[in-house]
């Protein structure tokens, strides 16, 4: 671009001539000015849409907190499931065996607090507020349920101490050091090829594997028993019986009327009777009705082993006898 000035003497516009240095200084000044203006506009836009550096840092912190809250939510859900399984075991096994009344769902919740803690969360963003409300509410519920569960265990411990003789007689261990291959309930019979009630569980075992009494009691059967083959049956008293089928032989000297204690060797696995292969068929009868033996192995099964046994039992639709 060229600039002019008016010459009064000659009555005309005369172009202004700049030196190279002046032109460079002028051009640099213009570029600097344009840069300052553009930078100011960009900063204004960034502040408008993204916020100040402090606001950006707060947003990043909020995202991290939300991520941690979501992780906490997952943990709380898992703890809730574990506590539910504990409550089921507490009601269906421990309290039932000891003759205690099961605790209802309402009793385990034990009511709620007296004031609303959630109103203080309204200052947060909606998503964060919802996560905090859910987290605080469920933590409060877990705390109440854990306290109730602890009181229940204390009651169970007290009754256990008062009923130790009964607990020694209840079949409460695995009869064999092996894993389950088939569970309790209707199963496809491997020989007859139709579904029929499977009133016990099957343990994988080679012929000759030792079998142990699962509770104190008296031998009421020790010999052949139709399709069950060589069978041992123990009366534990208190309405409980246990049965061990398809044995290869009975322990020497074991006979009807003999008393046995939990952990005593009583026989050896085999494949007698109508079976697919060598294994141990194990039953527990309570008040004349077969019950799921997995629920009565609490004395030597860890929670992880119990879950593994339950998964195998529920997934296999075939029995071995």
Terminal Cα span: 104 Å
* CATH superfamily placement of the largest domain: Glucose Permease (Domain IIA)
Strand content: 15-25%
Helix content: 40-55%
Number of strands: 14
Largest sheet: 10 strands, antiparallel
What is the CATH topology of the largest domain? Glucose Permease (Domain IIA)
Count of alpha and pi helical runs:
6
- Secondary-structure content class: alpha+beta
Give the name of the CATH architecture of the largest domain: Distorted Sandwich
**How many separate structural domains?**
3
Output the helix-strand order.
Answer: EEHHHHHEEEEEEEEEEEEH
| CATH C-level class of the largest domain | Mainly Beta
Q: What characteristic shape results from the CA principal axes?
A: elongated
- Kindly state the mean pLDDT as a whole number? 81
Uncertain ranges = none
In words, what does this structure look like?
There is one protein chain. This protein is α+β, with helices and mostly antiparallel strands and 321 residues long. The protein folds into 3 domains: 4-49; 53-162, no CATH class; 180-315, Glucose Permease (Domain IIA), CATH 2.70.70.10. It is built from 6 helices and 14 strands. The strands form 3 sheets. Strands 3, 6, 7, 8, 9, 10, 11, 12, 13 and 14 form a 10-stranded antiparallel β-sheet that branches. Strands 1-2 form a two-stranded antiparallel sheet. A two-stranded antiparallel ribbon has the order 4-5. Strand 1 (4-7) and strand 2 (12-15) form a beta hairpin. The chain is elongated. The model has no long low-confidence stretch (mean pLDDT 81).
